[in-house]
Amino acid sequence: MERTLAIIKPDAVASRLAGAILQRMEAGGFELRGMRLVHLTRAEAEGFYAVHRERPFFDSLTAFMSSGPAIVLTLEADDAIRRWRELMGATDPGKAAPGTLRREFGTSIERNATHGSDAPETAAAEIGYFFRGVELG
Predict the structure, then answer these.
(1) Coil, helix or strand for 58?
(2) Where are the domains of the chain?
(3) What is the model's pTM?
(4) CATH (residue range 2-135)
(5) Could you tell me the sign of the dihedral formed by the alpha carbons of 14, 51, 28, 40, in that order?
(6) Measured between alpha carbons, how far is 123 from 121 in angstroms, rounded to an integer?
(7) Active site residue 115
(8) Interval 29-48: pLDDT, tens
């Protein structure tokens, strides 16, 4: 079994899409091992996205991610990282495959409803950023 971090981003929470996204996670065979509602400060968003600090979108991304509540989750399944990324779809909702979360619920590259870890090392670091071991089932 593998774990990955998932985030239901502020745009999806504000649009009342969290329930639909959670349902798709469960229907996709993911076990929910941790879930928290968070409202990141700008500093917390900057810490989480530090790997993108030099990118031109860093400021707008961290402003967006600290703009309202988000739901952070630890998902578990066989091949969880690949499967979650497949369910999310491409970063750009306009390029995401039909039936993916970002195609259905995203409105732009930044406001694309969901986040997911891209590798086992990233998943471990991202899960550790939001969850302590005792919080995970």
Answers:
(1) helix
(2) 2-135
(3) 0.92
(4) 3.30.70.141
(5) negative
(6) 5
(7) yes
(8) 999 999 999 999 999 999 99
User: Three-state SS for 27?
Assistant: helix
Q: Are 21 and 8 in contact (CB under 8 A)?
A: yes
Name the helix (H) or strand (E) containing 50: none
| Catalytic pick among 114, 115, 123, 131 | 115
Length in residues, the chain: 137
Burial level of 6, CB count in 10 A (0-12/13-18/19+)?
buried
Residue 15 near residue 105 (C-beta atoms within 8 A): yes
Measured distance CA(88)–CA(100) in Å, rounded: 5
Tens of pLDDT, residue by residue over 60-102, are 999 999 999 999 999 999 999 999 999 999 999 999 999 999 9
Residue pointed to by tokens 């509540």: 69
Per DSSP, 57 falls in state T
